[in-house]
């Protein structure tokens, strides 16, 4: 009698491979999501830093003291510039990568993002 060799995988082997793939996905997906949120938080911090720098530069040029009011529109198109000339302190309004909105606040206080620290334990959306 001749025994023919069966080709293919057994059900147990396939189940083991599927289980290993499931474990890898269970580890990789949360790490990916954590890295993505931390990256968004860092990008938001960079945007807040740009807004703060533009606000301080605006305050120096227009001789504003602490507590003086500045708007995002003034940073993009300051008074005295030709409309549409866009020679402001910011080329355009920065956008929070997580969908938050920025508030410029007064001179001497840091700009803020509406997300703030609500996305803990990830990188907060505030100036360090």
Number of helices: 2
- Sequence of strands across the biggest β-sheet: 1-2
Shape: rod-shaped
Into which percentage range does the β-strand content fall? under 5%
Describe the structure.
By secondary structure, the chain is mainly alpha-helical. The protein has one domain (11-113). 44% of the residues lie in helices and 3% in strands. The protein has helices at residues 11-61, 72-76, and strands spanning 102-103, 112-113. The protein has a two-stranded antiparallel ribbon. Strand 1 and strand 2 form a beta hairpin. The N and C termini lie far apart (79 Å).
Short description:
The protein is mainly α and 128 residues long. The chain has helices at 11-61, 72-76; strands at residues 102-103, 112-113.
Write the SSE topology.
Layout: H1 11-61, H2 72-76, E1 102-103, E2 112-113
Antiparallel strand pairs: 1-2
Sum up the structure in keywords:
rod-shaped, 44% helix, 2 helices, single chain, 128 residues, mainly alpha, two-stranded antiparallel ribbon
């Amino acid at each position: 009698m001749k025994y023919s060799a069966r080709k293919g995988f057994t059900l147990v082997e396939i189940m083991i491979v599927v289980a290993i793939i499931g474990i890898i996905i269970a580890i990789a997906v949360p790490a990916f999501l954590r890295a993505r949120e931390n990256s968004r938080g860092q990008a938001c911090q960079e945007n807040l830093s740009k807004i703060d720098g533009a606000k301080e530069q605006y305050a120096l040029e227009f001789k504003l003291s602490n507590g003086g009011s500045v708007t995002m529109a003034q940073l993009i198109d300051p008074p005295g510039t030709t409309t549409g000339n866009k020679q402001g302190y910011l080329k355009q309004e920065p956008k929070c990568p997580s969908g938050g909105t920025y508030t410029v606040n007064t001179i001497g206080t840091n700009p803020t993002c509406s997300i703030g620290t609500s996305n803990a334990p990830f990188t907060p959306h505030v100036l360090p």
